[in-house]
Amino acid sequence: MLAMLVAGYWLGQRQLLTLQAQVQSEHHSSTQKTQAQIASLAAQSALLAQQVTILSSERDALVRQQNQAQQDLSAMRETVSFFESLLQSNDRARIANFVACDLQAIEPGKYRYRLLLVQGTNRTDELLGRLQVNLQYLDAGKKGRISQGLDPLIPVKAKHYAKLEGELAPPAGASNLLMDVQFFGEEGNQVQASCQKKI
Fold it and tell me: One Pfam family for this entry, by name (predicted)?
């Protein structure tokens, strides 16, 4: 009877050790699988992050190209307007005339103006004078105004035509923008040419 008890105990211990070894093996295998899955997910995450970085860089490059294309288009429009103005027969006796008067947003609260001032086709003397750029706007329901060309002056000296540009910085929330540009002759305060642009 004692022998049977010893044999039963020994057999039970063997089964317990076998079961423990099996459980440990399964746990080890499960841990390896989990670690492999984590490594795979980490690799996928790194790949996706790299792809996002590449797409972001490509997007930024496309935005830069679009901005450059818009600037090139604006310059081409100015050139076309300039040559069209030379073909026109009216206003030959005028001292000068604006054939391009453009205002574009660069970023919130900052705008760039581009002007093309053409000398009268019957005139041979040099185009001399000064430029004044005024911008009216609404900010929180109140009217506002900024001006360039008063202090300091914006001198204009050109033969046949003058390309003029600069930046205006109304408040970031400004609306109903109206740019009013005036070209004054060399003497006095008489306006020789003017143009307006509203956005």
Answer: DUF6776
